[in-house]
Design a protein that fits this description.
Length: 158
């Protein structure tokens, strides 16, 4: 599916007008569905912490220590942090958004440095779950518009 641009948006609008559809309701429905898809994909791509793992380090006297932790704890705070805002009208536009206000969400999404005692030891690459959600939502927009047109046609007898 292609993304929505000004030209094909005008085509969808024209089709809906010809069918006598309530354009405001259609725009609200499409906006809400696009946001819902974006949040769903972002949530699915959000990592969940696991606490049973191998631990390995070197002591100050040079001894290598290895062991396996046995915690049954599983995270999920970051994944549960996704929220979709209500679809609302701003001027003539319908707006809907989703976000994650977990304190460390931006670091998992965008990546971060690993710093110890003021020295940077490495970098953790970002997961980009927000961008994945936004990209998938954009890809699905045409399909959602087409579904809305089909629904309007069924309701109006076309």
């Amino acid at each position: 599916m292609s993304a929505i641009n000004a030209e094909n948006y005008s085509q969808y609008r024209k089709q809906l007008e010809e069918l006598g559809a309530n354009l405001s309701r259609c725009a609200q429905t499409v906006t809400s569905q696009v946001s819902e898809i974006g949040m769903k994909i972002a949530k699915l791509n959000t990592p969940v912490g696991r606490y049973d793992k191998n631990v390995s380090f070197v002591t100050t006297d040079g001894k290598v220590v290895n062991f396996q932790t046995h915690s049954k704890k599983v995270g999920g705070t970051l994944r549960r942090g996704w929220k979709k805002d209500a679809t609302h009208k701003e001027g003539t536009d319908w707006v809907s958004s989703f976000s994650n206000n977990t304190s460390y969400a931006m670091y998992v999404n965008a990546g971060h440095r690993i710093v110890s005692d003021g020295i940077t030891w490495g970098y953790v690459k970002g997961v980009r779950m927000m961008e994945q959600g936004m990209n998938e939502a954009q890809k699905q927009t045409s399909r959602i518009f087409e579904n809305e047109i089909t629904k309007v046609k069924a309701n109006t007898g076309f």
